[in-house]
Amino acid sequence: MHLPQEFYLRPTITVARELVGALVRRGPVTLRITETEAYLPGDSACHAARGLTPRTRVMFGPGGHAYVYLCYGMHQMLNFVTEREGVGAAVLIRSCEIVKGYALVSKRRGGLEGPVLLTGPGKVGQALALDRSMSGWPLFGGGDLEVLEGIAPARLLCGRRIGVDYARPRDRNALWRFAAADTAWVSHRGKLKPLRYHQDA
After folding, report:
1. Which end of the chain has fewer beta carbons closer than 10 Å to its terminal beta carbon, N or C?
2. pTM for the whole thing?
């Protein structure tokens, strides 16, 4: 079953945590989301902090749509827009593991095998053959890119986000990266620790 649009219209940290274990499908490839990063309103690491631009316009739309952008001129990064229209927030899909389409993903990733295939957001974009034209696509059914219910991991890990050294210290240090503890398909695992749900993450 598709995750409904209402799933995404909640606080971004909640969505980021609960996306771990969900499935993302495009054509013959289905991936289990194993790692996410939350990018919040007022967060200096969030693209929306720069205001409304042609690139970030989709982030200010209603939750439940894809935000795909090009990083370093080569990596297509998949994000899911969150919260209500006008807010400007999203969740980066940082790592996944393969549920269906292993041979095709390996081919798209140059014949690599194992977790290195998908432990990083650019790798996820390559595995799904994404491009920027997909920014704005709905995720909740009827399109070529779909997000489905999965099985939540028994335990989550959390840590600082990767590659946000340009952000304010408070935002750099925020524990807004979440990952499944039950899989090796996670990037920079040594920088994560068990999530305590009462902590101010």
Report:
1. N
2. 0.96
Q: Which residues contact 22 (CB under 8 A, 6 or more apart)?
A: 3, 32, 33, 147, 148, 149, 150
Percent of all residues in the chain with a pLDDT value above 90, rounded to a whole number? 92
Right CATH for 5-194 from 1.10.260.40, 3.10.300.10, 3.40.50.720, 3.40.50.620: 3.10.300.10
Nearest CA to 156 out of 97, 196, 115 is that of 196
Residues facing residue 22 across a β-bridge? none
Q: Which two tokens stand for residue 21?
A: 């274990």
171 CB-near residues (< 8 Å, 6+ apart): 43, 44, 45, 164
